[in-house]
Amino acid sequence: MRILAVAMALPCSLNRYLLLLAQEHLEFRLPEIKSLLSLFGGQFTNSQETYGKSPFWILSIPSEDIARNLMKRTVCAKSIFELWGHGKSPEELYSSLKNYPVEKMVPFLHSGSTYKIKIHTFNKTLTQEEKVKRIDALEFLPFEGKVNLKNPQHIFSVLEDYGLDPNCIPENPHNIYFGRWIADGQRELIESYSVKKRHFIGNTSMDAGLSFIMANHGKVKENDIVFDPFVGTGGLLVASAHFGAYVCGTDIDYNTVHGLGKASRKNQKWRGPDENIRANLRQYGLEKYYLDVLVSDASKPSWRKGTYFDAIITDPPYGIRESTRRTGSQKETPKGIEKCPESHVPVSLSYHLSDMFFDLLNFAAETLILGGRLVYWLPVYTPEYTEDMVPWHPCLKLISNCEQKLSSHTSRRLITMEKVKKFEATINWTVREENKMPLRAPLWSRWA
């Protein structure tokens, strides 16, 4: 065939893919893609400096299988394409396409195939006439199959990028891409797992999209054991279970763990019999992944010494809508409060945020497997925040640090850490100032 004859003369090119991303949670996109590529045996390498706020990233990925696995997990990306050509003008695009190895085109352009071409524009709307004109300009490509608009075997796309400023849309695109559609991401999970539709929610139930992002940052996979020490209504357990992990957790609030007490929904006074964490997993067909949730104090872990968890994913209480507290003892009972009977659970005492994060990191270092990840939210007072204020531990390596703004002066940061060193109780890092454990009062006092 004419195509094969030309193919023999052309050199092979790298496997380049175009990732089309959602314009939401921009800071979380890069760590999610890096984590997922690492999970599936790839490595993040960008072919050009297109990551950042742009919805178009060009990536080098070892194989199409890895690209498909990536899209089975990501909630930050919309679609991925095998990139055939790229340019800053139509002429550059056409020249790039003519240089693309024909042997890579052959399986998708032969006479027995069906196809269609779509036009996607970012930050600009084209008329149908303009779209048809762009498709007709691609007639030089050696398509030998038949057009099928309803159910094609192969879908090709022209993607045009008109920048990020909706108030200043250029006449011509900044970049034009042409590629073969490979797969779509998991954006529909945000709607299908929406907290609005969930049986059991609380005042601080985690947004579904962020829950899946946290699970992806934690590289949660099938048959992992995932733990949440501040489990609340179990939103993070639901996201982890969706990816096939077995989940468990603890919380100090008896009523929340058992689904008792006042409801958080408007116009509902008390929680019903089917409002609990297990029911949330049952709602999505994930009950088989539910291990258990215990009433327990995160500051006093009851676990035996050992490594149990592949990931710890949690949203600690910040003291705004959910107060930080721990169980006390008879000796710690504040003055003015009568001593409790020996058989009674001790009174709740305040639990300083710095102590809470100190305990969390130490617990993660002790109970995570090597390579396991800790993913948690860190509240910050923006005017005083510096990177030195992020808690650290000698057994944990910082992987990513992403900001979500809450107001003009407060935000929270999604911290992802990986266990890189075996825990040793003899390591002396308990004195925070001497070891530069940066949990200082000014950062936390605004949240008290």
Characterize the overall form: elongated
Summarize the main sheet. Answer: 7 strands, mixed
How many discrete structural domains?
2
Query: What is the beta-strand fraction?
Result: 25-35%
CATH topology of the largest domain: Rossmann fold
Kindly report the oligomeric state of this protein: single chain
Q: How many H/I helices? A: 13
* Helix share bin: 10-25%
Describe the protein's architecture and organization.
With 448 residues, the chain is an alpha/beta fold. It folds into two domains: 171 residues, 2-Layer Sandwich (VC0802-like), CATH 3.30.2130; 211 residues, Vaccinia Virus protein VP39 (Rossmann fold, 3-Layer(aba) Sandwich). It contains 13 helices and 16 strands. A seven-stranded mixed β-sheet has the order 2-1-3-7-6-4-5. Strands 10-9-8-11-14-16-15 form a seven-stranded mixed β-sheet. A hairpin with a 4-residue loop joins strand 15 and strand 16. Helix 2 packs across helix 8. The longest helix is centred in the C-terminal third of the chain and has 15 residues. The radius of gyration is 26 Å and the shape is elongated. The relative contact order is 0.10.
